[in-house]
Amino acid sequence: MKAAVVYKKGESPKYAEFTEPIPQNENQILLSVKAVAITNLDKGKASGKHYSSGNQNENGFIVGSDAVGLLENGTRVYARGIIGTMAEKTIIDKNILVPLPEGINNTIAAAMPNAVAGSAMALKFRAGIKPGETVLINGGAGFTGQMAIQIAKHYGAKRIIVTARNEKTFQKLLELGADEIISLKQDDETIIKKLKEVHLNTPIDIVLDYLWGHPAELILSALKGNGSFTHKVRYINIGSMAGDAIPLSAGILRSVDLQLSGSGLGSWTKEELKLLLSEILPEMFLLAAQKKIKVNIEEVNLTDIEQIWNADVSDGKRLVVTI
């Protein structure tokens, strides 16, 4: 079968022939793959830099973590792969899949799960979002940030503030539901001043942070208290596109009612993962089928995987590979 294969970590996947997988037990079944999104998680695993990356395989390995495809009975499903998914066939657990509703195409469905997990899990389980709250999305111009705006609005956020660098996306972010955008191209003093103004006028309840690095330092500095009572902020890190480590002042932690946590692979409980598959993803797929969630994608073919793997994608689109 044809697949996107990495022979050496750090190199782009190659369009190559690979042995068709064989289920190893009664819970494993074959999936005929139709679409797979290229995510930062997949790129991190392929490079060996993500904390969940496995050991080097001398025969190469197929990239891709999840997929949309067909079961043998013709049912369309989304599923996580037991092995790599960017191939004509992959193996999934028959008990861990989500049937797709009518009205949603394969590429839209393939693009959504990683971004839904990267926002809905943080909002529901780490932040415990309540209707009427104010949410700050740090790094909202990307695909996951755009999804987070819509999901936060769906969960009842009253006000959504976004930090972003790509000014070409600002109007789109407002159309998706953002109430205010703070450009990260401004100087530090201006950004901190604007964040403090926002927090003073409409206290921030939740921060969804996709960047970490210097932008996170600015937000935490803006939240720092002066010894008086403070508004509780639930700060959840989800990504580190702007850097993996920051200096964190102990004075910030002591001066503000701050809940600092992360949301990602390894941080979720089994019960939370079950709810992702049984409730959250089905709801989001249905909203997309009903055109109530907008999904910004660009389709590419598996044959072009080596050329497009590291391509710059404009305006927060997600690349989806069709097979």
Topology:
Elements: E1 2-6, E2 14-17, E3 28-37, H1 40-47, E4 61-62, E5 66-70, E6 76-81, E7 89-99, H2 106-126, E8 134-138, H3 143-154, E9 159-164, H4 170-176, E10 180-183, H5 188-201, E11 206-209, H6 213-223, E12 233-237, H7 250-255, E13 258-262, H8 270-289, E14 297-301, H9 305-308, E15 318-322
Helix pairs in contact: 2-3, 2-8, 5-6
The CATH class designation of the largest domain is: Alpha Beta
Helix amount: 25-40%
Main beta sheet strand tally, sense and closure: 6 strands, mixed
Reading the helices and strands in chain order gives: EEEHEEEEHEHEHEHEHEHEHEHE
3D shape: globular
What is the helix tally?
A: 9
Number of domains: 2
Summarize model confidence as the mean pLDDT: 94
* Rg estimate, integer Å: 20 Å
Distance between the termini: 11 Å
> Which CATH architecture of the largest domain would you pick?
3-Layer(aba) Sandwich
CATH topology title of the largest domain: Rossmann fold
Please give the number of β-strands. Answer: 15
Q: What's the CATH superfamily of the largest domain, by name?
A: NAD(P)-binding Rossmann-like Domain
Fraction in beta strands: 25-35%
Segments where pLDDT lies below 50 for 5+ residues? none
